[in-house]
Known about the structure:
The structure is a homodimer of 379-residue chains. By secondary structure, chain A is α/β, with parallel strands linked by helices. Chain A has helices at residues 8-19, 25-35, 38-44, 53-60, 64-75, 91-94, 127-142, 155-165, 187-195, 213-224, 238-248, 263-273, 282-307, 325-333, 341-348, 352-364; strands at residues 79-83, 102-107, 116-120, 146-149, 170-173, 197-201, 227-230, 252-255, 277-278, 339-340, 368-371, 375-378. At the A-B interface, helix 12 and strand 9 of A face helix 12 and strand 9 of B.
Amino acid sequence: xxxxxxxxxxxxxxxxxxxxxxxxxxxxxxxxxxxxxxxxxxxxxxxxxxxxxxxxxxxxxxxxxxxxxxxxxxxxxxxxxxxxxxxxxxxxxxxxxxxxxxxxxxxxxxxxxxxxxxxxxxxxxxxxxxxxxxxxxxxxxxxxxxxxxxxxxxxxxxxxxxxxxxxxxxxxxxxxxxxxxxxxxxxxxxxxxxxxxxxxxxxxxxxxxxxxxxxxxxxxxxxxxxxxxxxxxxxxxxxxxxxxxxxxxxxxxxxxxxxxxxxxxxxxxxxxxxxxxxxxxxxxxxxxxxxxxxxxxxxxxxxxxxxxxxxxxxxxxxxxxxxxxxxxxxxxxxxxxxxxxxxxxxxxxxxxxxxxxxxxxxxxxxxxxxxxxxxxxxx
Amino acid sequence: xxxxxxxxxxxxxxxxxxxxxxxxxxxxxxxxxxxxxxxxxxxxxxxxxxxxxxxxxxxxxxxxxxxxxxxxxxxxxxxxxxxxxxxxxxxxxxxxxxxxxxxxxxxxxxxxxxxxxxxxxxxxxxxxxxxxxxxxxxxxxxxxxxxxxxxxxxxxxxxxxxxxxxxxxxxxxxxxxxxxxxxxxxxxxxxxxxxxxxxxxxxxxxxxxxxxxxxxxxxxxxxxxxxxxxxxxxxxxxxxxxxxxxxxxxxxxxxxxxxxxxxxxxxxxxxxxxxxxxxxxxxxxxxxxxxxxxxxxxxxxxxxxxxxxxxxxxxxxxxxxxxxxxxxxxxxxxxxxxxxxxxxxxxxxxxxxxxxxxxxxxxxxxxxxxxxxxxxxxx
Lengths: 379, 379
């Protein structure tokens, strides 16, 4: 994404809020909405009784060393702060009840706007589970989807690596800061992901992993994705949390069955009994997501219409999308050969954040396909 | 069963009807119901315009050699003809739309009145599938259920053998006459089943196996059983027919999941997608059947009340069953140690066919348990 709607000052103000003790995502979102910007929140923090004393102290007198480190992180090429107030904030994630106040991104945030499929599963996967993770990730990547997972050992790592090997993009959502890679042995993998995808976290730079971070991380994996596929999972696996959150968020949950003698099939079998779709092939997942794509597009269009300030592409009905003048400009700019977002912006004279959301709507409607590397083509 | 309500003459008359060309199960049931007995149908066949010419010819002038062979089969110890008109006809099977007009039984027909669970699956099962068939059959037999299957190679044979090895009873429903064993290599197994269970067929003695017999056989397997468990099945497996019939008959369908790479898991996965219960352990099947047992008991009680002539135990409501004088006599005759049906008949002075149906009602209500070998105990 070449345009960043959040200025450096505003980004630093957001970081002050994100680092304030006891200030949750919902509170931050509400404060910024009420005051108009993070800088305004900071300017008026002393007079806002809704901010508890400890948070107010932290916001008004931030730690200088932390602030300098945050500034260095923001200035580093490839690092982005995507706030809930930004049009770049991923639309599907915006839709979940406990949406993060902001995302720290190392890599290209464009992938956050692509159609994502989550692949999750056990850290202690079997050889056959790892092979299945690789095969499904490859198929999803080759059909133009971004594979989203949690960078954990086992299924997660196999899915990320296979998506990259297939020339696709992959998003790793972390339970640490994007500059703290856990597990350590996935350092090289994380570097590849930052280059051909994105490392994403709601935790500020430098945050170490804590056990309670990982279930929170899971809601972001589920919230970014159209659907979540669980490959192998024990009955107490964190993957079942991700799947439950996906179902609660109205997203599709997919699970691979296995032998009744394999403890790592138990979690998948539980999900299937609870209503997850039993999956044998990647095409079944893709077929099902095409089906729910249209429904999500409707919903998303509503959200985009009501939510984002300055977006002039509001409420085109599905059949009339092509008659909306801005959609008509975008469709005229599209081609049978893949076109980059920058090129589309130049051709259509539409701002990139608006373009991103319009392209996702068209993608979910099946009019546009996203090719690897943020290039778009008429479907 | 020590009492046989069908006399030798009446049995031969039924055989004449069963062997008449073009006379289906529904037509035979209707004729006998209209004329009062099979002998009356034969006596009035020349004057009944509903009987087509070929069937009438066969009925009025039966082949002498066939008749002699049928008589020999009927006289052989252990062989029984259970007609639809008999109180011995299994109540659950009576309930299906296309119930056979009669069952040829080699073995003890008492097992037809026990709670049965069908285990079916591929003839070309894997080693793991065969091991699963054995383990589930053993568990069902040890919990006092009769294992019902089709005597085929693979899953069927493994289930029969394991039920017998566990000291339980098993019923094999054949697509041939009970005196024609197919596949040949199951001759020894069939002999064991006739001794500790029953070979059952709707086809008269001497009938060879034809491809169209086996789907018809499958409806009897499903119809006799409270539920059907499919262990391994390809997408074109006859086991899927059995499962579909079981579902259509309102019985429970259970399926074992497996690897997405195993062609023999595909049929089971299809069943699970279509609503079959995904099964990991035998206890799950037994628990589920206890649940539907009560429902079937209600239904069965209605049928028994309206259907069987001379049964004096009509319409006891579930809670009042114990207050019905005949049920009270039966409950008084039962004990915490298993009691044989003969002993129960002597103690309660109730006729054995009435006893059998009352015991099934109590069994389905969870008041009585059937132990191996037709012995009953208070649950």
